[in-house]
Specification:
- The chain is α+β, with helices and mostly antiparallel strands.
- The protein has one domain: Aminopeptidase (3-Layer(aba) Sandwich).
- The strands form two sheets. A five-stranded antiparallel β-sheet has the order 1-2-3-4-5, with helices on both faces. A three-stranded antiparallel β-sheet has the order 6-8-7.
Length: 179
């Protein structure tokens, strides 16, 4: 499945080599990464793109490069992917987003995520999708709630070191029948 999702303001598509520079710049921005343990180096950012591409190759879906429809600018990443750690809610597929600061507060994450939920439920036939973030990430939690996702509990993110202030996470869920 090599789909491209088109909305009024966004195009979600497979990654291009040219996206790597803008993605690395975004991942090096402390404002963008404030709810992550650290900013990413260029090598870490490129490795993330490589993992995203591999997920697409193996599963036929993943985290898309998000571009503004009108200008073609790279805005960030929005998509669905298998959760890559063990927790009480896995195995599962998560929905997520990360946008550059120039694209915040414009409803783009919600617009793109809605299209990804349609993909997850209508095309992939998933029964449920999850999302998670740190407790304090109110902007992402608001997007989850706008999507109709419901709070489903707390957990300690196993990929964040014990004692780190960002390790406690909240889990949200939505079922295909809840849309």
């Amino acid at each position: 499945m090599d789909q491209c999702l088109e909305m009024d303001r966004l195009i979600l598509r497979r990654w291009r080599e040219a996206d790597r520079d803008a993605f690395a710049e975004m991942n090096a921005d402390p404002r963008v990464m404030r709810f992550f343990p650290a900013c990413l180096t260029r090598a870490e950012s490129d490795a993330t793109v490589d993992r995203i591409q591999k997920h697409f190759d193996v599963h036929g879906f993943g985290f898309f490069a998000a571009e503004l429809r009108e200008t073609g600018e790279f805005a960030g990443v929005i998509g669905v992917a298998h959760v890559n750690f063990d927790a009480f809610f896995t195995p599962s597929v998560e929905i997520g987003w990360r946008l550059g600061t120039a694209y915040w507060n414009r409803g783009l994450a919600t617009e793109g995520a809605r299209a990804c939920l349609e993909l997850a439920f209508d095309t992939l036939g998933l029964a449920q999708v999850v999302s998670f973030t740190t407790h304090g990430n109110l902007p992402s939690r608001r997007v989850m709630e706008k999507l109709g996702m419901r709070y489903a509990g707390d957990f300690e993110h196993p990929k964040i070191p014990e004692g780190h202030p960002l390790r406690p996470h909240v889990l949200y869920r939505i079922g295909s029948s809840a849309r």
